[in-house]
Fold:
Amino acid sequence: MNHKTSLIFALSLTLAGVAFAQNDSVKTAPTMEEKVTSVEGKVDGLNESYLETKGTVDKLAKIKVGGYIQAQWQHADTNGGAAGGFAGGGFPGTSNQRFQLRRVRLKTTYDAGTSQYVMEFEARPSGVVLKDAEVILKESWLKTFTLKLGLQDRPFGFEIPYSSSAHEAPERTRVFQTVFKDEKDLGANLEINPAESMGFLQYLNLKGGLFTGTAGYNGNSPSAAGTGDEIDSTMDIIGRFGFKAPFADLGLAIDGGVSYYAGKVLAANDSLYQMSGTVLADSVGAFVKNKGKTFDRNVMGADLQVYYTIPVIGDILGGTSIRGEYLSGKTIGTLSGSMPYGTAGIAMAERNFMGYYVSWIQNLGPMFQSVIKYDVYDPNTDAKGSDVGVAANGKLGTNDLQYSTLGLGLLYYWDANVKLTAYYDMITNEKASTGAFSKDLKDNVLTLRAQVKF
Amino acid sequence: MKLQSITTGLLLGALSLSSAGTITVKGSDTMVILAQRWAEAYMADHTGVTIQVTGGGSGVGISALINGATDICNASRPMKASERESLKSRYSSLGVEIKSAKDGLSVYLNDQNSLEGLTMAQLKDIYTGKIKNWKEVGGSDAKIVVYGRENSSGTYVFFRDNVLKGEDYVSSMQSLPGTAAVVNAVAKDPLGIGFGGAAYGKGIKFAKINGIAPSAETVKNGTYPLTRYLYMYLRSRPTGEMKQYIDWILSPAGQEIVTKVGYFPVR
Structure:
C-alpha cells in the first residue's frame, strides 16, 4: 500500500468515526425531563453546599472585630504644651508641636446571644495595654438584665461610657481625665434596660456595681504600676440611674441621669493633707498615723443631653445637641495632683472638687459637624487662686488652681469610616498670687486629627 | 468678617450637599419591588431626579442610614431603640419615620397542603420547634419543613417579636435570602411553611391566621393578626426634592402603586 492509498483509507476511517459519533449523540440526547432532573440535582447539590457553608458563616458571624486609629498633629503655644497634658498627654519639654498616634484600638467580640466575650487592646509605641475584658451575660426571658464582669467602663455619667471614637472633642473633659482616669475599672456591673415591651419602664435605666477602685491608678488599666488588684478589702460602689425621653414627633429627645461613686482609699503613708481654713495641712503634725487606714472618696454627678432638630433650619442643616454634666465630691490624691491615689507610699491629699462641661454640637448637612465645648474643673473648692503661692498656706500648689477650657471644633465625616477633626483648645487657669501661674499660661492647643474606624 | 465668610461658605456647602439631585434608597427586601416601582414612576415624571434603589434587608438599610450611605431607609419593622441611639449619637436626631404602606405578613403553605389555616399559638410552636409534624396541627403525618428569613431582615424581626414573642427560631429553620426565595421554596416543597409579605404570594396559598385570611379589608381594619406597616426612615425632616418625593409616595398616585404591587395603602 502506497502513501496515497494509506491516506485515503485513514480519511475514510475518520469520516466514518465522525458519522457514527453523530449518530450516537442523536440517540443519547437527553430529554427535557432528564435535563430538568439534572439541573434540579445540581441545584439541590448547590443548596446542600450553601447550607453547609451557611452553618460555617453563621458561626463566624458571631465573631465581630472592630477598631480604630486616631492619628493627629498638634501645635501648642509653648514647648511642653498644656499644663497637665489634658490634650492627649504632655508634649516633650523641648517641642511645641508633634505627630501622635493618640489611640490605636482593636476590639473583638464573640456574641453567642445570651453571652458575650469582649476584649479590647490598645497598641502604643510603649507597648500593648488591655482596655476592656468583659464577660457579658444577658437573660433571655425579660431581655432586660445584663451582668458584666471584668475590666469595663465605670457606670458613671455620660462622658465615660461615650466611646472615645464617637466623642466630638478630641478628649474627655479635664475633670473626668483627673477623677476617673482611664475610665475603666475591674468589677461586676448589673445593667437594667427594660425592654421596649415594658411600656413606660423602657424609658428608665439603671446600672451599677462593685469595683476594685484601683484599676486605673498610677498608669493605664491595669498597667505594671497599677495591676488592678484589690488592696483595701473594700469594694467601691458606682451607679447611675438614667432616663430617656424621646418625643419623635417634635424631633426632640431628652436623656439624663444621676450618678454616684462611693469608694475607699487605703493610705500607704502616715501623712494626710487636708484643708484647714486656707491651709493644706498634714495630719501627722497632730500626731495622727494614717498608714493602713481607709478614707472616703465620694463623687456625685448629674448629666443631661438634649437632642433637637430645629424647625426649618434643622431640617436643612441637621440635628443639634446640647450636653452638660456636673460632678462634685471628694478626691484622695497626692500633693502633686488629684489623680487617684496609688500604692507608691507617698502622702495623701484630700480635696473637695467640682467640675462641669456644656457642649453644643450642630450638624451642618450630613457630613459636617461643629462643636463648641466649655468645661471648668476646680480641683480644690476650698482654696482660692490668691491662696496659692502664699507661704503661710502650707502645701497649696498649682494643682489646686481652677481651669476652664473653651474648645471650638469642626468635624468632617469623609465616609462611613473616616472622621477628620480640627479642634482648638483655649485654656485659662486661675491666677495664683505669685510665680508663673500669676497670669494666664500660654497653653492653647490646636489638634488636627484623622480617625479611621472599622 | 473673615469668620462670617467661612461660616457662610460652610453653610452653603452643607446646603448644596443636602440638596443634590440623586436620592438613594436602601433597605427592606420586602419593599424593594415597591420602592423600584415608586422610583420608576416618579423619575418618569421628574426627569431631573435620579433615585437609586437597593435591598439588603431592613437592618442593612438602617445601618446605611446611620453611616450616611443612604438618604432613605426602607424597613419592614420599626427602628429599634439601639438603632435610634446610634442615629442620635451621630446626627443628634431621632430620625423621621414615615408609614408608607401596610402589609399583611403572610404565612405560606404549599398548594398541596390540606390545611387552610393555623392559630397564632400553633404558628409560634412550629417556628420555635415545639411542633414538628403536620398531624399535630390537623394535617397529614409528615415532618414540617420550616423556611424563614435571614436575621438582617425586618420581616424576620417582626415575626420573632410578634409571633414568637421574642423566643428564638427553631435551629432547623432554613434561612433564605429574600421573601421571593421563601415563596419559591414553599412552592416546591409540599411539607414546607414560610412567611413573608403579601405581595410575594404567587404560586402558593396563604394560611388563615386565627381563622382570618390576609385581605385588603382585614389588613385595613386590623383584624388580620399579622398586620404591619412598611416604613421609610430619614435622618431629618425631608426638604427639597426629597420632600416632594415623599409627598408623592403618600399621594393617591404613590399609594395606587402600593395597591398594584400587592400591599395596602396607608391612606
